[in-house]
Give the backbone structure.
Amino acid sequence: MPGKGNNELEGTIVTPAQSPSEESAAPPARQAMTVSVLNEQGLHARPAAVLAREAQRFPCDVRIVHNGDEVDAKSILDILTLAAGQGSNLDIVASGPMAEEAVIHLAQLFQKRFR
Amino acid sequence: MASVILKGIPVSAGISIGKAFFLNRSGHGPIPRQTLAPELIEPELARLAHAFDQFREELVQVRDRIPAELREHAHIIDSHLMILDDPKLQGAAREFVQKLGINAEWALEKAVTDLQRAFEALDNPYFRDRIQDVRMVSDRVQSRLAGQTGDIKAVRNRVVLMADDLSPADTAAIEVDKIMSVVTAQGGKTSHTGILARTLGIPAVIGVDDLEEHVRDGRLVVVDGLRGSVLVDPDEDELAKFTDLKYQFEAYHASIMRGCHLPGETIDGYRVKVKANIELLEEVAAVIDNGGEGIGLFRTEYSYMNRRTLPTEEELYEEYLDLASIMSPKRVTLRTLDAGADKFIALLGNPEERNPALGLRAIRLCMHHKDLFRTQLRAILRASTVGNVSVMFPMISGLREIRQAMSLLRTAQAELRQQGLGYDPEMPVGIMMELPSAVMIAEVLAREVDFFSIGTNDLIQYSLGIDRTNRYVSHMYQPLHPAVVRSIKHVVDAAHQAGIEVSLCGEMASDPFCVPILMGMQIDAISLNPQAIPGIKRIIRQATMDDCKKLLKEVLESTTVSRTNRLVRDTIFQKFPDELMFFSSLLDQEEGATA
C-alpha cells in the first residue's frame, strides 16, 4: 500500500467559537474540517458517488467548500462541478444534528481514498 | 419514394419488411412544454416520480445481473443511480413542476439545461464530460415519460429491432422469435450483432449513420440485408418491389441450402474445400448446418476479451477439445492469438502505441508475452490428440518469426512429454500470409511450414497502405487491385511448388465475384463465414475450371481495377445471374472511385 501508515486524519477540527451557542446541551451545531483529495484522478465519478451517498446518511446539512465555491455534499452533480483534482484542499462543513459525526466520517473517506 | 433511404453494412442476407422497434433508445422526441392547471400539479409530480422509479428499478436490475468478471463496471451504474436521485436533477425537476406549474418533461429538461451550464464552465475535460452521464440518465427518464418502455418484452408482434449498438448482454436477453431483422448504428463486420443475425438467419444491417434521427418507433421500414440499406416509410411501388425480391431471395436461399452438403467441386471435377471462419464454439452448429467442410479459421481472441484474468490452460484446452471433438474428423485450424491493434486486451496492459496496426500485435505480441503464448500453445497441443487439429501463426513477416514460434512450440511439446501429457506430433503447422514481406519470400517460407492461409483483409490493407475504417481512404480498398491479385497468385504458386496446401480466409472468400478468380489460381481451400457457404458452394458447383482459368488470365492481364471489375461483373452476369442480384460485393464500394 502506498500509504505512509499514519492513522491520523490530515485535517484539523475547527470548532467554531463564533457559532451562537444556545442554552441547550445539544452537540455543536456547526462543524468543519479541511481535507485534501488523495485520489489520483481527483474527485471523479466513483468517489463523488461514494461521498454523496455517505453524506446522504446524515440528517445534517453538509457542504463542501473549494476555492470559494460552496456546494451540497449530498449531490454528486454538485461535487462533480467542483472539478477537484488530486491535491486540492476542501472544507467539509456540516451543520445540524450529527454534524460532528458526519464531518469525521466523510473526512475518513477522503483519507481512505474512497476505497 | 421512401421518406429516407439509409445506408449501412449488410452483415446478414435477406429482406424484411416490418415496424421499427428501438431498444435502449438514447434520444427522445421534441420535448413538449405545457402549463398546468393547479389541480394537475400533484398528478404531474407523481408521474415524474414514477418515471424516475421505473428507470431506477431497471438500473438496479442491470447492476445485479452484471457477471462477476465485469463487476468493476458496476460503479458506473452506481454513479448513474446517484445522479438519478440527485437533488439537482430529480429535486430540481420537482421544484420546477411545483413552482412554475410546468409539465414533467419540460421541468426535467430545464434542470438538465441548468446543470449543463455549470458543467460547460469547467476547464477539466473529464469533469466537463460528466454532463454526458446526466444526459444519458435524463434521456432514459424522458423516454419513460413519453411512455416508451424500451423493453423488448413489451413487444407483441414481430419487429425490426433497432439500436445504437447491441451488447452481448442485449443479444442474450432478446426473445429471438419476436425479431424479423436487426439494424444498428454501430458495429464492425465481425460484431456480435452480425453473428447473432446470421445464426438466426434473419437480415441485418449495421453501421447505419443517423439511425435514431431518421427512424421512429413504429415506422414501417424495409431492411435490405443483401445490399445494406434501410428504407423508411416505403411507398407502394417499393413495397411491391421488395416483397417480390424477398420471395425470390427465399426461393434462391432454399435452393442453395438443398445443395450445401455436397462437396465443393466444379462441373469438370476440380475440388476446392469450403470451410468456415468462426470465433465462438456455439457457431459450430451453423458450420455443420451450412455444409462447412471443416474450420479453416478459428479466431481464438474471444476467450481473452471482457474479463479480468487471463484464461487458464485448462479453460482453453477444454474449449479447443470441444471444438475439435465436435468437428472430428473434419479439420479444425486454430489461429494463435491475433490481438493488438483492433482487439485491445486490457489484461496485458499494452503500452500506448502511436501506430497500432504496425505495432505490437499478433505473433509479435505473443513473442513479447511468452507465458501467454506458452499457455495457448500447450492448450492447442493437448487438444490436438483428437487428431484433426492444425495451428497457424498470424502476421508472420519473415523466417525468424517462424523459427522462434516453432522453437516455442517444440519446447511446449517437450514439457508435455515430460509431464506425460499427450499431443499429436504430426499436427500441421501453418502461417497466415498477410504481410507483403511474407508474400515476396513465399518460396522461402513454404519450405518451413505445412500450409499457408492467405488473410486477404490484412494483406490488402498492408499492400495498399489503406485503413479501410478511415472513410477518407476506404474507397481505395480494392480487393482486385492488380497488386493484390498478383500477390495471391504468387503465394498460391509458391505453395504448390513446395507441395504444401494453401487456403484463403479473408472476406474475398465469401465474395461471389472474387471466388471464380481464386478458383482459377487452383486454391486448395477457402474459408468463410458459415452462412455464406451454401451460396459459394453453389457457384463452385456450377463453374468449370476452364472458365475460371480464362477469367483469371484476363484479370491478370488487366492493369486497372475498373477494367478488372468490369470483366468480373460480365462473367458473373453470364454465368451466375442470381448472385449478381442477391449479393453485394466487395467490388461495389469502389464504384466511381477508380477514375
Summary: Strands of chain A lie at 13-14, 30-36, 61-66, 69-72, 89-95.
